[in-house]
User: Which sequence fits this backbone?
């Protein structure tokens, strides 16, 4: 058989099928989930040359050209597994992942250094927009209503109001027009290592195009940092090894970012993750653990969040 499905997974927000072809390697096919509030995005053609110009161990991989009425995006990729999956299953040593994340940070810094091609008529960052709608009262799917009840208990109205203000800061038209080109959701689940690393070490691609936007550079950096902070706080591994992954990302990006702003976006990423799980997957008792962590993170949302664990692992719920 010339084509084989090697993985298939999804939520009410996005569905992913990974296929392998004998002649052309791996492809990640991503489509809108049944509860996604907006159709899956598409990369403007004017952005493609810019992405292609960014070279290094980690590059930005756009989806293939989209034909009329297609509701899926096809991404060529160098492997069948994401960094998120590898961390979850502990498939890769910390050292190799740290090198890859340092290169990802450098790639994001180069993306942010480019002038946005053409008029920046791109949507607001979608993660904060979803969270804003939920914070404003929308609770239509699965366990999103129960999440609100639990969030009020664990976070209180004050922390939820703080999160709403942070979201608003990212969605204003003036902020977007004066901002840089953003990937929009550079998560570990879109960072795909190669099964055949180059001679210079690990190589990977970051699937790009679905949520492209503009805004402060700290947004992209905070998004991926938030996933690493959450991993540091809830996984069973060594906190210092997990901290080294955050350090590598920030080192790769360089010293230009406002780390307090990065930390605020990191907390929003953690909040969006809890929201998306309850809204597009359903309820699980671990959501309460994440809400307790989120309360601590909102209270500690400055650069220190990116440098040390919130609390010793033997004191975590």
Assistant:
């Amino acid at each position: 058989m010339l084509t084989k499905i090697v993985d298939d997974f999804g939520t009410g927000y996005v569905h992913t099928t990974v296929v392998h072809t004998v002649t052309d390697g791996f492809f990640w096919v991503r489509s809108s989930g049944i509860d996604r509030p907006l159709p899956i995005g598409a990369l403007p053609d004017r952005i493609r040359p810019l992405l292609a110009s960014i070279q290094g161990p980690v590059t930005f991989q756009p989806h293939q050209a989209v034909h009329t009425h297609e509701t899926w995006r096809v991404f060529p990729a160098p492997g069948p597994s994401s960094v998120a999956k590898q961390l979850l299953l502990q498939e890769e040593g910390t050292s190799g992942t740290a090198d890859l994340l340092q290169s990802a940070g450098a790639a994001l810094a180069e993306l942010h250094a480019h002038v946005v091609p053409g008029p920046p008529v791109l949507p607001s960052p979608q993660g904060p927009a979803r969270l804003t709608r939920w914070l404003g009262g929308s609770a239509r799917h699965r366990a999103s209503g129960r999440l609100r009840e639990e969030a009020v208990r664990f976070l209180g109205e004050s922390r939820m109001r703080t999160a709403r203000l942070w979201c608003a800061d990212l969605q204003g038209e003036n902020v977007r027009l004066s901002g840089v080109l953003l990937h929009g959701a550079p998560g570990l689940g879109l960072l795909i290592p190669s099964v055949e690393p180059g001679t210079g070490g690990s190589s990977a691609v970051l699937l790009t195009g679905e949520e492209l936007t503009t805004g402060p550079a700290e947004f992209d950096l905070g998004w991926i940092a938030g996933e690493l902070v959450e991993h540091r706080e809830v996984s069973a591994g060594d906190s210092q090894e997990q901290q080294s992954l955050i350090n590598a990302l920030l080192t790769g990006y360089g010293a230009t970012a406002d780390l307090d702003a990065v930390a605020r976006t990191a907390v929003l990423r953690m909040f969006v993750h809890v929201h998306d799980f309850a809204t597009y997957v359903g309820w699980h008792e671990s959501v309460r653990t994440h809400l307790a962590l989120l309360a601590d993170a909102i209270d500690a949302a400055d650069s220190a969040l990116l440098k040390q664990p919130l609390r010793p692992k033997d004191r975590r719920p």
